[in-house]
Write a structure and sequence with these properties.
By secondary structure, the chain is of the alpha/beta class. Helix content is 34%, strand content 17%. It is built from 18 helices and 17 strands. It has helices spanning 42-51, 70-79, 97-109, 128-143, 147-150, 201-215, 235-241, 263-269, 281-294, 296-305, 322-326, 379-386, 391-397, 411-420, 437-446, 461-476, 486-493, 517-534; strands spanning 14-17, 86-90, 119-125, 153-157, 161-165, 171-177, 190-194, 221-226, 247-252, 343-347, 355-361, 366-373, 401-403, 429-433, 454-457, 495-499, 505-509. The strands form three sheets. It has a nine-stranded mixed β-sheet, sandwiched between helices. The chain has a six-stranded mixed β-sheet with strand order 13-12-11-10-14-15. β7 (190-194), α6 and β8 (221-226) form a beta-alpha-beta unit. α14 packs across α15 (437-446) and α16 (461-476) packs across α18. The model is unreliable at 1-41 (pLDDT under 50).
C-alpha cells in the first residue's frame, strides 16, 4: 500500500497521510491520505483501550485515568494501520506526543497487540539525556499498574536505561543516542524517534537509516515525533512533505504569516489545549504577547516550538527575522502604486543557478521581485535536490519564478524580459554586483539598456555592510512594502550575515543549498533607493546675463 504525498504547505489544520487516514475531525483539518478498507484496525482498538487503562504519571492531572483526545486517537489509528511502517507526528510543544508514544511503547512491550517473543523497543533521541524523557514516562506508567503486574518488570537505571518485561514472551525497552553504530545488527519491533527535528544531521540520519533497516527483520514500526523543523531541508521536514510508501503523516501546523498571538492558529498547533492537555489557551496567548514584546530569538522560538511553524530559531546572524519581514507584507490591494523613479536590483546567476531581479520605488516603498532558473533540470527535480520539495513549482504557479534557457539563464534576453514586466517604465538605474561587470555590460547592450545608468556594488565587507544597514533601516521604518511572496520569504529565510572583527556585515547563505538571490537583489535595490532619497536635492542657480 502507498501513502499519498501531496504537498500541503501553509494551510490550516492537521495533515494525515497514509493508508488509514480518517475523515477530518474538525473543519479546516488537512489530510494526505489513501483510504483503507478497514477504517478502524483491530490493533488500534487494542492500543486505545490499553492506553485508557493507564494513569497519568505526572503533571497537574497526575494519578487520574488517561483519556485520549481526538487528535491522539487519530494518530494511534493511523500509525498502527495495516501497511504502515512509519508514523510521523508534528505538533506544538506540550501536547503529550512523547507521553502518548511511551504509552504505546508500554502496550507493545507487554504484547497487547503484538505477542511475538522477545520484543525490542528503542527510545531514540539526539542524546541520552533527551531519550530519558520518554523513558521516564514509560517508568511512570509502569508505576501506575497493579503491584502484581509491576513485578514482571525489571527497571535498570545505571549506565544503560532499560526496562525488561518477563511475561508474555518477554521484551526489552532501551534508550540510545543518535549514533547509528550503536544498533547495527539489532532487530527492533518498535522504535520511537523523539524530537527528530533537533537531531544532528549526519548522526541523526545514520541512526534513522540503521533503525529503518532493522525494522524490516520483524515487521517493526517506527514513530517519528517532533515539533516542526526550522527549515524544509531538515530530514523531519522531508518526512512530512515527501512521505514514502507505508508512511502515516499527521501535521498540526497553522498557515504561515499569521500574528503570533492569533488564538485560532495557536489551537491548530496545540489541539490539546482545549482538552486539558498541556498549556491552556490563555497561557499560550499570554506567552505569545510576551514573545512579541521581546522579539528576536524569543519570538522565533515561540513560533517554532509553540506554534509549530517551520521558522529558523537563529537570530544572531540572520539578515532579518521572519516577523520583521512579515511586517513589510501587505495585501495586494494595499500595495503602494508604481510612482516615482524605479530602481532595478539584479543578482545575475551563474551556470545552473537562479538569476533574480527586484524593482523598488523609493517614493512609495513598493517592492517586487522575480526569479528565473534554467529549464534543465526541471523545477521539481531542482527542488528535490535543494531540499525544498515542491517549493519552486509552487513559486512558478504563483508567478514569482520563471524558467529560461537550457543549462544557464541567458543574461541579455533575461534582462530584456525583466524590464518588459515594468510595462513601459524605464528604470532610473540598475544596481548589480561589481564582480560580474563584463557580463552586465554585455547583457545591458543586448537588452537595449546601454543608456541606463549602472551602479556597481560589492558583496564584501565595505559595500555589503552599508547596503545591509540601509536595507534594515528602510524595512524597520516601514519604507518597504511587498505583497506576500513565497520567493522572498524563502530567500530571506536562508539569508544570514557574516560579521568581521569591526562588526561589518556581508550577506551569506545559511545553508549551502539555500537560494538567496532574490534577497540579494532586493537588498541592492532598496539600499540604492535609500541613498537616492538621502541625497540632497540640487537647486537651479540663477545667473545674470
Amino acid at each position: 500500500m502507498t501513502a499519498a504525498a501531496t504537498k500541503a504547505k501553509g494551510r490550516k489544520g492537521a495533515v494525515a497521510s497514509g493508508p488509514n487516514a480518517q475523515k477530518p475531525a474538525k473543519a479546516g483539518d488537512r489530510r494526505r491520505s489513501v483510504p483503507l478498507s478497514l477504517p478502524t484496525p483491530e490493533k488500534a482498538d487494542l492500543a486505545i483501550a490499553f492506553l485508557e487503562t493507564l494513569k497519568i504519571p505526572e503533571g497537574k492531572m497526575a494519578g487520574q485515568p488517561l483519556r485520549l483526545a481526538e487528535f491522539q486517537r487519530q494518530f494511534v489509528r493511523g500509525a498502527l494501520a495495516d501497511g504502515v511502517m512509519v508514523g510521523v507526528l508534528s505538533i506544538g510543544r506540550g501536547n503529550s506526543k512523547t507521553a502518548t508514544s511511551a504509552g504505546l511503547a508500554l502496550g507493545h512491550l507487554v504484547g497487547k497487540w503484538d505477542d511475538q517473543p522477545k520484543r525490542e523497543i528503542l527510545f531514540c533521541a539526539r542524546n541520552r539525556d533527551q531519550s530519558k524523557t520518554a523513558f521516564a514516562f514509560l517508568v511512570g506508567f509502569i508505576e501506575g499498574l497493579p503491584e502484581d503486574e509491576q513485578e514482571r518488570f525489571i527497571i535498570r537505571r545505571g549506565s544503560k536505561l532499560e526496562v525488561e518485561y518477563t511475561g508474555n514472551g518477554g521484551g526489552l525497552a532501551r534508550c540510545i543516542a543518535a549514533d547509528g553504530k550503536s544498533i547495527l545488527g539489532g532487530a527492533p519491533t518498535l522504535a520511537i524517534m523523539d524530537e527528530r527535528a533537533a537531531w544532528e544531521r549526519e548522526k541523526g540520519d545514520n541512526l534513522e537509516n540503521a533503525i529503518l533497516s532493522g525494522l524490516g527483520k520483524r515487521d517493526g514500526r517506527a514513530l517519528i515525533i517532533s515539533t516542526s523543523a526550522p527549515d524544509d531541508a531538515n530530514t523531519f521536514s522531508r518526512w512530512l512533505d515527501e512521505p514514502p510508501p507505508g508512511t502515516y503523516v499527521q501535521e498540526h501546523r497553522p498557515a504561515f504569516g499569521l500574528p503570533a498571538d492569533d488564538l485560532e492558529s495557536l489551537l491548530q498547533a496545540n489541539p490539546g489545549a482545549t482538552e486539558g492537555i498541556g498549556s491552556t489557551p490563555e497561557w499560550l496567548v499570554a506567552q505569545a504577547k510576551r514573545a512579541i514584546a521581546r522579539g528576536g530569538s524569543a519570538l522565533s522560538s515561540f513560533r517554532n516550538l509553540n506554534r509549530n511553524e517551520r521558522v529558523s530559531t537563529e537570530d544572531r546572524s540572520v539578515l532579518v527575522t521572519v516577523d520583521e519581514w512579515l511586517g513589510a507584507e501587505c495585501a495586494p490591494d494595499d500595495l503602494p502604486p508604481r510612482e516615482g523613479p524605479c530602481i532595478l536590483g539584479v543578482d545575475l546567476g551563474g551556470s545552473r543557478s537562479m538569476s533574480a531581479a527586484a524593482f523598488y520605488w523609493p517614493d512609495t516603498g513598493r517592492l517586487e521581485a522575480i526569479g528565473t532558473f534554467p529549464t534543465s533540470p526541471s523545477l521539481a527535480d531542482r527542488g528535490a535536490a535543494d531540499g525544498v520539495s515542491g517549493r519552486y513549482v509552487e513559486m512558478q504557479e504563483r508567478g514569482e519564478l520563471s524558467v529560461m534557457g537550457d543549462a544557464t539563464v541567458p543574461p541579455g534576453p533575461w534582462l530584456a524580459e525583466i524590464v518588459r514586466k515594468l510595462d513601459g517604465i524605464q528604470p532610473a538605474c540598475i544596481v548589480g554586483d561589481r564582480f560580474r561587470h563584463a557580463e552586465f555590460i554585455e547583457a545591458m547592450e543586448k537588452a537595449g539598456l546601454a543608456r541606463v545608468p549602472f551602479i556597481w556594488r560589492g558583496f564584501g565587507w565595505k559595500d555589503g555592510s552599508e547596503d545591509i544597514e540601509r536595507f534594515r533601516r528602510a524595512l524597520f521604518d516601514g519604507e518597504v512594502k511587498v505583497s506576500p511572496s513565497l520567493l522572498l520569504r524563502s530567500a530571506f529565510s536562508d539569508a544570514i550575515v557574516l560579521l568581521d572583527p569591526a562588526n561589518n556585515a556581508k550577506l551569506a547563505k545559511a545553508r549551502s543549498l539555500g537560494r538567496i538571490d532574490a534577497a540579494a537583489a532586493s537588498l541592492l535595490a532598496v539600499a540604492q533607493g535609500q541613498r537616492m532619497k538621502a541625497a540632497p536635492t540640487r537647486k537651479a542657480r540663477l545667473q545674470w546675463a
